[in-house]
Amino acid sequence: MSIENNLSEIRKRIADAAEKSGRRAEDITLIAVTKTHPAEAINEAIECGVTDIGENKVQEIMEKYDLVKKGVRWHLIGHLQTNKVKYIIDKVHMIHSVDSQKLMEEIERQAEKHDVDSINILIQVNMSGEETKFGISIDEVDDMLEYAKTLKRVKVCGLMTILAKIDKGMSNRLQFRDINNKFIDISKNKYDNIDMKFLSMGMSGDFELAIEEGSNMVRVGTAIFGDRDYSK
Ligand SMILES: *Cc1c(COP(=O)(O)O)cnc(C)c1O
User: Fold this and answer.
1) Distance CA 222, CA 34 (A)
2) In this predicted model, what pLDDT tens digit does every residue of 23-50 receive, in sequence order?
3) Does ligand 1 lie within 6 Å of residue 75's CB atom?
């Protein structure tokens, strides 16, 4: 299957899942996850209408940035170390993986240093407890938001989660549902730099389930580009 065919298939599935949850395809942002794939594949996807791409490593963004067509929005979706914020602060449209006040503080500091007026972030929530390393617990979200209010350039736009196990079982559905409930709850609180618009959840194996449970931003790699080869 070609990237073009895969994309049209996925768009159809997104539209169906959106409809199931009373929304439209346009309400769901598709992020094409391009990690391990070369710039040529990314540019092909952009030719097919992809507007948002996701990478999980700072290093890979740096390597591909100049080779990828301009105008596409870059999303950092993987863990971000504070000492690497400076490399991507003026390149990415959104950072999905913010899971500490220390990291938020560094993002604010680097935004100021690099004259970036506003930088979109999502708070990464760990719904699977011990099984996954990154992300804060759902109980800590309120404190993170309180802290964000003290910042000027960091703009909190929503929540992100990665479940420990990709499956379509009830336990995953309930984890998606729990974070969606939190998302809806905190969406009511608007603040200068807090506007909860995006719930980033769902990957190749579970994006339909995630959309049914409220996701409006899905991160899909394998289903678009095929299997990743980490040996290269
Ligand atoms: C790799 C990755 C994805 C995409 O996973 P696929 O199963 O290939 O769709 C989504 N989110 C994050 C954070 C990732 O690192």
Assistant:
1) 9
2) 999 999 999 999 999 999 999 999 999 9
3) no
Q: Give the number of other Cβ atoms within 10 Å of residue 231's Cβ.
A: 5
Check: pTM over 0.90? Answer yes or no.
Answer: yes
The residue whose CA has the least distance to atom 12 of ligand 1 is: 77
Instruction: Please give the structure tokens belonging to residue 4.
Output: 């073009």
What burial class does residue 227 get, using C-beta atoms within 10 Å of its C-beta: 0-12 exposed, 13-18 middle, 19+ buried? exposed
How many A from CA of 78 to the centre of ligand 1? 9
* β-bridge partners, 217: 29, 200
Contact by Cβ (8 Å): 154, 108: yes
Model confidence pLDDT, tens digit, residues 50-97: 999 999 999 999 999 999 999 999 999 999 999 999 999 999 999 999
Mutating to test ligand 1, I would choose from 52, 56, 97 the residue with most ligand atoms within 8 A of its C-beta, which is: 56
Q: What residue has token string 């863990």?
A: 79
